[in-house]
Write a structure and sequence with these properties.
By secondary structure, this protein is an alpha/beta fold. It has helices at 72-87, 102-112, 126-134, 142-146, 159-162, 187-192, 202-215, 236-245, 261-275, 287-292, 306-315, 349-362, 365-375, 389-394, 396-402, 417-433, 441-455, and strands at residues 62-67, 93-98, 121-124, 166-167, 170-171, 174-175, 179-186, 228-231, 251-252, 255-256, 279-280, 296-302, 322-325, 335-338, 341-344, 408-409.
Length: 456
């Protein structure tokens, strides 16, 4: 029987930010005339930074940050830069430059690495950071995290956020944004079909999807007879989550492994859904529109899509109740968490500390809450939830989503995941393009395994 955990709320306590290299002197005992008691000694602990940087060297120091964002995220980040430049106590000056998207950012940063024009701080995907770390150009942030003066309370971050950026004992980055892909379930429609709870296992998912499809046969229109169930989603994160729901995956030790019995079961289950018309693909409309129009009882969506779904229901005057759920497994449900991270490239000790202080400031509760309210992603710090009480009330599905964080799993911590994840989505989609029979899904998994090892 599966256990659902509620999100643990931990109060964040940052290490006191004193001046670097400050030494607190130890008090000396004093004697009192006529007293026979031993004087009380009040001792304090010497507190100094381990980063070997004089704070005065930070004053006026300029650092460059490259981001993958445009539009609303880029505008918010620019406002953060302005606030930090005007308020930070060290006199650090930050300049931000948008590279439009993650792909362009990766290529541009990689090309800049041998030059003096490379950025100091990059907001990149973890797999990008791992690749640059192999090239020896990424700063290990372990000492920064643990520094008694400039460190950060790592216990205030969900493990699934914090652990993504550590490999072989090296912290190549710290989380910048985190999201996940979920299943959306129409609770009202399910109730009309005789189901009073979301699917707790793959078989429950199949039953609800198939009964929804069968309900479409009762009207006079033949055009919607294949609709009703789950809209097939070939996003790599969705595919990976289904594999995990069947207790499969893509790794064995440190090598890619796709051709396993559990992965075969997962792909066979999903193909059989399509063969029985319990899953279908849409080209003429969006999954969100079909979800709102009672054409799909399940769709897949990312955390940041939830406000769009809510607006679509309101715009259609659809008062159905709908919920966010993880991918149902027989023993454990699955949720794959992903997102960007702050990566500090190697430079001088002073520039690295300046980049760290800016990244650490961005992770403070106030900035973290503003990211959530603007992008609708997860709050990175557990303590930030205290600032989001009103947001939770107005975004109930988001509030549901954060309760599933204890189920979250990180993506493969390999630089090659940058290419392999695309291949995973393409391989899954290929099953549908060629209408591969469910009994032959092992073939596509064997091809994917071979391709993944070539890409490694």
């Amino acid at each position: 029987m599966k256990n659902f955990f509620s999100l643990l709320c931990i109060t964040a306590i940052l290490v006191a930010a004193c001046s670097a290299n400050r030494v607190i002197s130890t008090a000396r005992p004093t004697s009192t005339a006529g007293s026979t008691k031993t004087p009380k000694v009040e001792s304090t602990v010497e507190t100094t930074s381990r980063l070997n940087v004089n704070e005065k060297a930070l004053n006026g120091l300029e650092i460059t940050v490259w981001t993958p964002w445009y539009g609303i995220e880029s505008s918010l980040f620019d406002s953060f830069v302005k606030d930090f430049n005007s308020k930070n106590e060290w006199g650090i000056k930050v300049t931000a430059q948008s590279q439009i998207n993650f792909s362009n950012l990766y290529e541009t940063v990689t090309a800049s690495l041998p030059t003096a024009e490379k950025p100091d701080l990059v907001i990149a995907l973890p797999e990008h950071a791992l690749g640059w770390n192999t090239d020896g150009v990424v700063t290990d942030l372990t000492l920064y995290v643990e520094d008694p003066i400039y460190g950060i309370d790592s216990n205030d971050f969900a493990p699934v956020f914090w652990d993504q950026d550590v490999t072989d004992g090296v912290r190549v980055a710290i989380p910048a944004q985190r999201s996940a892909r979920f299943l959306l379930w129409n609770e009202t429609w399910a109730g009309e079909l005789g189901f009073d709870s979301p699917p707790a296992a793959p078989e429950d998912f199949r039953q609800q999807a198939c009964r929804a499809q069968q309900s479409m046969l009762k009207d006079e229109s033949a055009q919607n007879d294949f609709m009703g169930g789950w809209i097939v989603d070939t996003a790599p994160t969705t595919v990976y989550a289904w594999l995990l729901a069947f207790e499969g995956g893509v790794l064995e030790s440190h090598d890619y492994r796709f051709s396993t019995p559990n992965n075969i079961d997962a792909f066979k289950f999903l193909r059989e859904l399509s063969e029985k018309n319990c899953a279908w693909q849409t080209v003429e409309t969006t999954p969100i529109t079909s979800f709102v129009n009672h054409e799909a009882i399940f769709i897949s969506a990312s955390l940041e899509d939830l406000p769009t779904v809510a607006r679509a229901f309101a715009g259609a005057n659809n008062t159905d109740s709908w919920k966010v759920i993880p991918f149902p497994g027989e023993n454990n449900d699955a949720l794959v968490v992903y997102g960007s991270s702050y990566v500090i490239l190697k430079s001088t000790n002073e520039e690295q500390l300046a980049a760290w202080l800016f990244a650490r400031w961005l992770l403070e509760n106030e900035q973290d809450a503003r990211w959530v309210e603007t992008t609708h992603l997860f709050p990175l710090r557990t303590s930030t939830i205290d600032l989001l009480a009103d947001y939770k009330k107005t975004h109930p599905q988001w509030a549901q989503a954060i309760t599933f964080l204890p189920l979250g799993e990180v993506q493969p911590q390999l630089a090659s995941w940058r290419k392999v994840k695309t291949m995973l989505g393409d391989g899954f989609a290929q099953m549908y393009r060629v209408n591969l029979p469910s009994g032959e899904v092992a073939k596509i998994l064997a091809q994917m395994e071979s391709t993944a090892r070539d890409l490694k």
